[in-house]
Amino acid sequence: MIANNLMKIKFNKRPAPVLVEHRPVYKIGQISLILYISSRAYKSSLTRLHLFNWVLKDKNRQKDLLNTVENGNFRISAWGFDPALTIAIRFAIAEKLLFEEGSGYKLTDLGIRFAKKIMLDDSIFPEEKKFLSLIKKSITEGMVESVTKSWTSL
Question: Which range of residues forms the domain containing residue 125?
Answer without folding.
Answer: 19-71+79-135
